[in-house]
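Mods, move this if it's the wrong board.
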Amino acid sequence: MEIEAHVVMGDAEAMKGTAKAIETNKATVKSMVVQSLASAEATLTGDEKEMGVVLVDMGGGTTDIAIYRQGQPWYSAVIPVGGMQMTRDLSVALKTPMHMAEEMKIKWGCVMPEMVAADDEVVIPSFQGQPQHSLSRRILSDPLNARMMEIIKLIVMKVTQSGLKSFPSGGIVLTGGGAEMTGLAELVQKTLGGQVRIGYPEEIAGLPDQLRKPAFSAAVGLLLWGIKHQGETRSSLNGDRSMSGLKSFRWGLGRRKVAAVR
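Not the wrong board. Structure tokens:
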């Protein structure tokens, strides 16, 4: 029998460590799910998946990409740059500790400085004897813009590597905690064109309002994935369902079309 599959490989030690941490808290790990696919469960519409769409999940340490075509996952990738790099850039630029830079990024950060009024200023708290002082919010936003432009270029590179010559008609859906940055959708739309929206869990009966945010897309999607695939058993391609002794894991996600996997 021949089948076409979407294969995802992950580091075995990292997977075993994650599973062990969960099982230590008296929970059972039934399967592993790629973060971008989990986020897609909570954010993408059926029409977007059919038309073709690029999901971008912007996390703290990575930016995860999933491309859907004809209703199915078609390509996935991970970019090792995320929100923490933006915080570090801000920390270096303003000469402040990471925790202060993170707070300023969340409260006043904007990845599109031209959206900020020229006279808009923020107060930088005192630190290690340095007095507090005022700073233009545009200046604060400059390093965030520079890093985000780099991430956008890396997203374009991954989409090109997937074999697509242009972005699909469903456009781009941005989610994850990084997607809550002010000006992100506008910057991506200005840079790449096409349809761009911020994705978050919605149209889910009983979901509390505090979870209807981009930062919770993967967590909510993971629950939806579990409900959708309950009773299924997933394993590596070598048929071994145990985590021990494997250098990497592979998960196959079935496609509609049947073809050869080599």
